[in-house]
Amino acid sequence: MKTAISLPDDLFLAAERQAKRTRKTRGQLYAETLAEYLARHTSDEVTEAMNQVVERLGEPRPDPLLAAAARRTFEHTEW
């Protein structure tokens, strides 16, 4: 898909230099850059969704048998 965007001159020139250095077309550089940006920020959305689920579920109550077993394990583990 073709699209037109406006960039500040200094950003455009820096992108042109990077495209030449890496032997990529301007379109390839912009597409890869945007894909990387979206990948980085998608994880923020996942974290936020998980946080919302945890908030809705409330504070978990530990299983007394599991807590006792963990305590015994720690007591017998050499640190």
List the helices and strands and how they pair.
Elements: H1 9-21, H2 26-57, H3 64-75
Protein name: ChpI protein
InterPro entries: Arc_rbn_hlx_hlx
How would you sum up this structure, described in words?
- With 79 residues, the chain is mostly helical.
- It has one domain (9-75).
- The protein contains three helices and no strands.
- The protein has helices at residues 9-21, 26-57, 64-75.
- It is elongated, with a radius of gyration of 25 Å.
- It comes from Candidatus Competibacter phosphatis.
- InterPro entries: Arc_rbn_hlx_hlx.
- This is ChpI protein.
Which keywords apply here?
single chain; 79 residues; mainly alpha; 3 helices; 0% strand; ChpI protein; Arc_rbn_hlx_hlx
Number of strands: 0
Please give the count of helices: 3
Averaging pLDDT over every residue, what do you get? 89
Low-confidence stretches are none
The main β sheet shows up as: none
Strand content: under 5%
Q: Identify the quaternary structure here.
A: single chain
As a percent range, the share of helical residues equals over 70%
Distance between the termini: 59 Å
Q: What is the H/E order?
A: HHH
Round the Cα radius of gyration to an integer and report it. 25 Å
Task: Give the tally of structural domains.
Answer: 1
Approximate shape = elongated
Which structural class is indicated by helix and strand composition? Answer: mainly alpha
